[in-house]
Write a structure and sequence with these properties.
The protein is α+β, with helices and mostly antiparallel strands. The protein is built from 8 helices and 6 strands; from the N terminus they run αααααββββααββα. The longest helix has 30 residues, at 6-35. It starts with 5 loop residues before the first helix and ends with a helix.
Length: 309
């Protein structure tokens, strides 16, 4: 507003006054309509004339506002920045935290960029080498292990078939390949939940969890790996399973990583029948204990787990 020309500021103030007057007249119209008309002799004509006069003033104010707004050009501050700068002028800013959260996100992003810059400069200036072999000595060429994402399809099938045979009594595991060589593993855990794992080689790249009554197939019959569950409890479990894939990730032993995740996922078979190990309650904020300890597999509410730490 400080960079706007004086003429434009006056037009903007005039438009705001016209808007206030228009809202006042519209409020009067609805107030009169809500009060109703009394069936009193010789007064109905007076009430109709009064209503007609108020509607005429509304029409006049609306015409003036349209004429004034058409001559009002774009704001300079808004044209030089993103639309997010206009959130602060929202009249209901005190009822929503969108603008505050947006400012917090910007500050967090700037701080992250600053810390990343410091870390980058520190790594560049680090005089220490990552290998204890001194210069001038003969160093054997180390044999590089095969990347987990480049395992052949036959090795992946052998691992998945062993898991299907091993857990056939507790969970149903099926494999499809709608995207070519990448395997999509569908795990049905009793009558509790369904989990979808997308593998690229031996690496788990995508996870989705839904309820037992929900389906991972779209209307066209193809596997849908993007849509989330309509239940909040399984949306939370999706976040926890995604975190578990990062915890169990082992690039040197990818088979162990997948097996560990399947064993950990099996602990959700008692999702609705096991109380929280911290508070002893089955429900907290309407949700069962959705977190399973990555080492002991004990059930915790998300808040209770944070408090325990």
């Amino acid at each position: 507003m400080a960079n706007q020309p004086p003429n434009q500021i006056e037009q903007l103030q005039k438009a705001l006054k016209l808007t206030q007057r228009l809202r006042s007249n519209v409020t009067q119209v609805f107030q009169k309509l809500s009060d109703g008309f009394e069936d009193v002799e010789k007064k109905d004509k007076y009430l109709l004339n009064d209503l007609h006069k108020t509607l005429s003033s509304v029409n006049t104010d609306l015409s003036d506002l349209e004429a004034g707004s058409s001559s009002l050009g774009p704001l300079t501050a808004a044209s030089n920045s993103t639309n997010s700068t206009l959130i602060c002028v929202d009249p209901i800013i005190d009822k929503t935290s969108t603008y505050t959260q947006l400012i917090h996100s910007y500050k967090w992003t700037d701080k992250m960029k600053e810390q990343a810059s410091y870390a980058n400069n520190l790594l560049k200036e680090n005089p220490f080498k990552r290998t204890p072999i001194q210069s001038g000595t003969f160093a054997k060429r180390l044999r590089r292990s095969q990347p987990a994402c480049c395992y052949p399809q036959s090795n992946v099938d052998i691992l998945l078939n062993s898991l299907i045979h091993q857990y056939r009594d507790t969970m149903h595991i099926s494999v499809v390949r709608p995207l070519g060589s990448s395997a999509v593993v569908l795990v049905v855990l009793g009558k509790t939940l369904k989990a979808l794992l997308v593998l690229r080689g031996m690496v788990i790249e995508w996870v989705k969890v839904k309820g037992y009554t929900e389906d991972f197939h779209g209307e066209d019959g193809k596997v849908d790996i993007w849509s989330s569950s309509r239940y909040q409890v399984f949306q939370k479990i999706t976040q926890h399973v995604t975190a578990a894939t990062l915890h169990y990730y082992a690039p040197e032993m990818p088979e162990i990583a997948i097996k560990s995740l399947i064993i950990w996922l099996q602990s959700y078979s008692t999702l609705f029948s096991t109380p929280c190990q911290k508070c002893g309650q089955f429900l907290q904020n309407g949700l069962p204990p959705t977190w399973r300890d990555l080492r002991t597999k004990k059930a915790y509410h998300e808040r209770c787990k944070l408090m325990e730490k």
